[in-house]
Amino acid sequence: MVSGLKLLHVVGLLTVFLLACLFFYVLEDVPSFGDPHSPANERVLLSKINASPQIINELNEGIVPEVLKSELEKRGFYAEELSVMHKGDHYDIYIPTNESEFNTKEPEVPFYLVVADNAIEIYRYAPAVRYEERVEEECGVPNMVTAILADYRGYDTLGETTVIFTACVAVILLLRRYGRL
Amino acid sequence: MSVKKAEIGTGGWKEKERGKEERDVIVDTVARVMIPLAQLFALYVMIGTEGAGGGFQGGVIFAATLILFGTVFGVKRGREALPEGINAILNSLGLYIYAGVGILCIILTMGAVEYLNYGGFPLPTEFALRRGYLVTYAVEVGIGITVATVFASLFFDLAWREDVIESREASSAVASARREADARSSGAQGGE
After folding, report:
1. Domain ranges in chain B?
2. A15 touching B, CB under 8 A?
3. How is chain A split into domains, by residue range?
4. What local confidence, expressed as pLDDT, does residue B100 receive?
């Protein structure tokens, strides 16, 4: 045993190694870098339910099956007044918007996505999809980054600006050497 | 050339007499030409939504031009161009614009929309364009004003020099006592 090696050092070293192991374990699940169609960028799997012919028929007719609604409700997602549209190999489920100021002529952005093969898989569209597809018609700004930063994430940017302002005030209080206001 | 006694509790920089500092012609001219262009570019980055950028980036570019001015022409002239009072007003004004637009959205629609929902702002255009206009011309400009003046203020607060400090401390008794002591010691050195 090396002299001077205390218990704290050993624990610290072990923690670092454990963290490295955890990182490599998580790395397995990370989608391939820069892939725009990776699940994290497109859809998030919520749950799977068993498929029955009745459910698929209801989906084809444009009715949201009760099983699916209860499944969404069980997981704490919005499940009232949904509408279904059949889009080739999957079904898009829309949520009506309630805010009075939004124009609701057309159905809003699809919120859930359902793939019905052997089992029915329920996905939630990732926010990135909405930003990419709808940012210009929703915000009137061609720059997606600007729209996200100042509009969708307005509170966040307000906080950032406040942080910079606070830093300035702190520096003024600590370091200002000449002059007064 | 008389060297001012300027080593009061500072790094010990020698201060040359004002107006007699040697200034490089090339640096001077290039700064003179580049600063307005860079400021124009900063405004383009700040307001133009077609390309990359936004309030933060444009504000930092604008602050860089102010810092360039302070570096080339001296901190004192830089401070004359952007006095501290105006600086303090501006860097809170930007934040006021941003937060005030959010408040105005609530007030002008009598509470129909939420805070920072720019679409409710009563401008005579459609919903999406209202959001676009406010994001571009109010929010980004507000962020830009704040960031530009904050970074300029950081620079000017860090880049103080002794002559300016002297003029400030001239009012305080401590400084005068120090100066007397300094004069006495320098007189003693001169005597040697």
Report:
1. 25-180
2. no
3. 37-125, 128-181
4. 93
